[in-house]
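Model: You mentioned two targets. I'll fold them one after the other.
Researcher: Yes, keep them separate.
Model: Target one:
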Amino acid sequence: MLSPEADTIIIPMVNSVFLAIVLLPVVCGITWLCLRGKNDAGNLLAWDGTRPVRSVAVTLCFAIPFCFGLSSLLDEFTAPPGWHGLWWLPYTLITLFWLTVMRGAALSDRNGC
């Protein structure tokens, strides 16, 4: 049995690994759907004027999680020095970058699709 003073940092670390394993198929599936049939990187600010409803729907699907990520990013930057919340900064930045790239890739018209 662990004493109350024992270091329990392994618990959040293992939870992070389990979360990554659970989300891996979702992230890979979204990435595949956005990039299938594409030959180049596309445009991050893409907008399909011929299909505005699709453009709005795709933008909202990626913008809503992006806003939650920005809120988390703000919390991480305003955390007290030495606070464990700063450990999530790289994950948050990577997630925000991924959301931005996937939105642009989903709306870019690169192969006449």
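Model: Target two:
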Amino acid sequence: MEEDIENNVIKGPWKKLHVKQPEDIEAELEMKMEFAEDLTQELIVHMVQMCNDNKITISDGKLINDLGMIIEFTKGMVYRGMEIPYPTQNIVDRFVDVAKDSDGATHTDVNMEHLSRFIELFMLEDDNDSS
């Protein structure tokens, strides 16, 4: 019986398994987030330049508000592409449906009715908080 045990032993050498340390994981996430910030900034700069080229100046207060939202949603898209969670992703998941047509082309559909109801509820809640 002892011979069977000795014959069943598999001898190394074994490759050392590298386990990522929390510091390594945090540093990697920080690098990804910095890259995402830079990419978002580049995308937004190009968009603003295209707007300016087409006589749409982003200096009006409301357009600046629009741009602020676009920046956050763009960041959410970039983060999602890098598998990093971001709060705007939840909003997109709730209000945007993706479908394929018969040709296999992918289309998105923003549920504007659902979004409008949500905004109304949000504004109503905001009004109640002000009272």
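Researcher: Noted. Anything on target two?
Model: The mean pLDDT is 88.
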